[in-house]
Design a protein that fits this description.
Blueprint (H helix, E strand, L loop, with lengths): L2 E7 L5 H13 L3 E5 L6 H13 L5 E4 L4 H8 L5 E5 L1 H11 L4 H22 L2 E7 L10 H20 L2 E6 L2 E6 L2 H12 L1
Parallel strand pairs: 1-5, 1-6, 2-3, 2-4, 4-5
Antiparallel strand pairs: 6-7
Helix pairs in contact: 3-5, 4-5, 4-6, 5-6
Length: about 190
């Protein structure tokens, strides 16, 4: 049965660490890590390397800066757990690919999210999705920044509605915003037997 967990938080809130802990718990060595980051400068290259170093070597990595759902459906990976890190960069990639055309980017973001949900259900996997919550800070001082914040905010809302559970990370601590009660009941039932 497919299952979506959305993990939100600010920068350095512990999102990725918590997502990787869940992926290890649910998939062990059999996890597909879907990377949306692009190494466009030295800083990003070093961040990507740091992320790689903290992941188990047994996890397979799929680079998908655009259209991860389409890539997943075309490749049909066998892993039971997928970890996509992160929606934040995916939305940024889409906006930049559309040269800041907000309407075209919104349409592409919606299509990308549709494809991702279709892939999750068709492949019958657990998908852990990491994203930044960018709506709690200052209003960006430029139009492109505001458009990006709005695009990501709408994407986060959409995925939160579709998710079985939503976790908000603050200072490394997970706060459950939406829980999968059926999953909790199955865990408790399993503990009784």
């Amino acid at each position: 049965m497919s299952h979506l967990t959305l993990i939100l938080g600010g920068a350095r809130s512990g999102k990725s660490t918590y997502a990787e802990m869940l992926a290890r718990q649910w998939g062990g060595d059999d996890v597909l890590y879907i990377a949306t980051a692009q190494a466009l400068d030295d800083d990003m290259r070093s961040r990507i390397e740091a992320h790689r170093a903290q992941r188990p070597a047994s996890w397979r990595t799929l680079e998908a800066p655009l259209h991860p759902g389409r890539v997943l459906l075309s490749q049909r990976p066998p892993e039971p757990v997928f970890l996509l890190d992160c929606l934040t960069l995916l939305v940024s990639n889409i906006l930049l690919a559309h040269n800041g055309d907000v309407d075209a980017a919104q349409e592409a973001v919606d299509e990308t999210l549709d494809d991702l949900l279709v892939a999750m259900r068709a492949l019958n996997v657990r998908l852990i999705l990491v994203s930044n919550e960018v709506g709690m800070g200052l209003v960006p001082d430029n139009a492109l920044g505001r458009a990006y914040r709005d695009l990501l905010g709408r994407a986060n809302q959409r995925m939160a509605q579709a998710a079985d559970e939503v976790i908000f990370m603050v200072a490394g601590l997970p706060l459950a915003l939406k829980e999968d009660l059926d999953m909790d009941d199955r865990c408790r039932d399993g503990d009784r037997h």
